[in-house]
Amino acid sequence: MQPLLQIQDLNLTVDGKPLVTDLSFSIAAGERLGLIGESGSGKSLTAMAATGLLPRAITATGAVTLGGQQVIGAPERVLNGLRGTVAAFVFQEPLTALDPLLRVAQQVAEPLRRRARRDGHELAGSALQREVLALLEQVALPQPERIARSYPNEISGGQRQRVAIAMALACQPQLLIADEPTTALDVTTQAEILKLLDGLVRERGMALLFISHDLPVVAEIVERVVVMQRGVAVETGPVREVFGAPQHDYTRALVVAAKAFDGALEGTA
Amino acid sequence: MSAVAATAPRARGSLTLWLGLLLVGLHIAVALLTLVWLPYDPAALTGGRLTPPSWEHWAGTDRLGRDFFTQIMIGSRIALIVGISAVAIGGLIGVTLGVLAAFATRLLDDALAATLDILIAFPTLLIAMLVVAASDTASLGTAVLALGIALSAIVARLTRILAKRVLLMDYITAARTSGTSWLGIVFQHVLPNIWPTLSVNFALQFGLAVIAEASLSYLGLGAPPPNASWGRLLQEAQGTVYTAPIGAIAPGIALVSLVIGVNLLADGLRDIGDPTRRGSR
């Protein structure tokens, strides 16, 4: 069976300057892959390229196949059909991920309605409201009725991220792309969101592309990792192998740094 | 709506709003009244020439003996029509161009931006005068169209910048990933989010349009007589400003009160309309 997302020799450049070089990896249906590396290593750009959302200034070459459709060079009309059914995004910054002028219920309702229309039926009125509340409950939001009526600035960062996840789920994607979804949150909220994502992805059999610079976070949620440094994939493999016996200097440095951090925490505890 | 907003009423905001409502409401009421009732026939010679204000003639009479207050009332109607139509024309053209530029390819965007900058470098009044001069007859319609076109450049530039900023937000990317078309993004996310700033700018444009129309009329390029534009009243009062200062003062007050009123109203409305500002400050 063809993988859900296949990236082959992806090169991204801006004004001739390379951002991502010869990147290749694939995600099968239901598989969970982590993309890790420091900021500026091209992780997010890769995710953008996967859904054809790259800024115009960036030139992409190579092959990106999402749900059997070549993404690079595809017209917007084709991509529009692809997005929302095949892949959905969860972003790093939960505040800018929600439109400040729309109540939570409206924001979640929109992708729900669009998804329903794609499946050939109209969703509106009280049926739509029920679906919205059901989704908010699935992402474990307390008092979903109250949250549904709130504006984004009236709820907390963790709650906003849960709403963003609900919006992504509303599309019923086969692949969920989470771009540093826990980076802007405090540690306890971070753990809760991770648990939620993990549960939802397993439950629905979705594939997950998890982007992070945080090693322990990645190790917790994915099966395979791609380690990126300056736009190049330096190491690929199952989580346990890569982190257990890192082959590349950069991966080794990452693992050592993470261990040193854990050690420091245990030392003071 | 929220507990925060309920416990922190904004005295300053509401005062702004009420004062704006009062001034604009007054002008609208007067303008509507002129459609059904006027104190005197605007063309009738009802008293002595250049009489000072009295109970019979609240703003005195002009040099032909016509009631001056009647003409100022009609001026309200003309000013409102001019302001609203000019902003509607300028807003429609400007917002469309601005949004297109924000979405366009880099080359097209640069070309549009440069064109707008050149247009803005010309004073609004000058562009309006050019348009009026290019048409055969001076009429209210030509003046309004000219002002609308002149204002559209300013609106377009503002829209372009505001829209570009909104387009950088993650919720736009999220909307695009969930398959929203670009028109959907414009109407659902971009326009609502730039509206608070844009509407305040529209109010400024309204004020500019009213003043510019008065200037055009003052120069004889606006509404021809018998339309009593405030600008024409001011121009007629020019020769008698020392003997009958009320002729210049009354239309001046009318003009300023409308412009200030609209600006206050816009300020107040913006604070109500934007949930992120509610209860803040």
From TrEMBL, chain A:
Superkingdom of origin organism: Bacteria
UniProt topology in membrane: Peripheral membrane protein
The entry's keywords: ATP-binding, Cell membrane, Membrane, Nucleotide-binding, Transport
Main location: membrane
Cellular localisation: Cell inner membrane
Pfam family, one: ABC_tran
A GO molecular-function annotation: ATP binding
Domain annotation ABC transporter: ranges: 5-255
Gene Ontology cellular-component annotations: plasma membrane
InterPro entries recorded: AAA+_ATPase, ABC_Ni/Peptide_Import, ABC_transporter-like_ATP-bd, ABC_transporter-like_CS, P-loop_NTPase
Family recorded in the similarity comment: Belongs to the ABC transporter superfamily.
Protein's UniProt name: ABC transporter ATP-binding protein
Organism encoding this protein: Devosia insulae DS-56
From TrEMBL, chain B:
Family: Belongs to the binding-protein-dependent transport system permease family.
Protein species of origin: Devosia insulae DS-56
Alphabetic keyword roster: Cell membrane, Membrane, Transmembrane, Transmembrane helix, Transport
Chief localisation class: membrane
Transmembrane segments: 17-40, 78-104, 111-134, 140-159, 202-221, 242-266
ABC transmembrane type-1 domain ranges (all copies): 76-266
Name assigned to this protein: ABC transporter permease
Xref: InterPro entries: BP-dependent_transpt_permease, MetI-like, MetI-like_sf
SUPFAM superfamilies cross-referenced by the UniProt entry: MetI-like (SSF161098)
Membrane topology per record: Multi-pass membrane protein
CC per GO annotation: plasma membrane
Any one GO BP annotation for this protein: transmembrane transport
Protein location: Cell membrane
PANTHER family: OLIGOPEPTIDE TRANSPORT SYSTEM PERMEASE PROTEIN APPC, PEPTIDE ABC TRANSPORTER PERMEASE PROTEIN
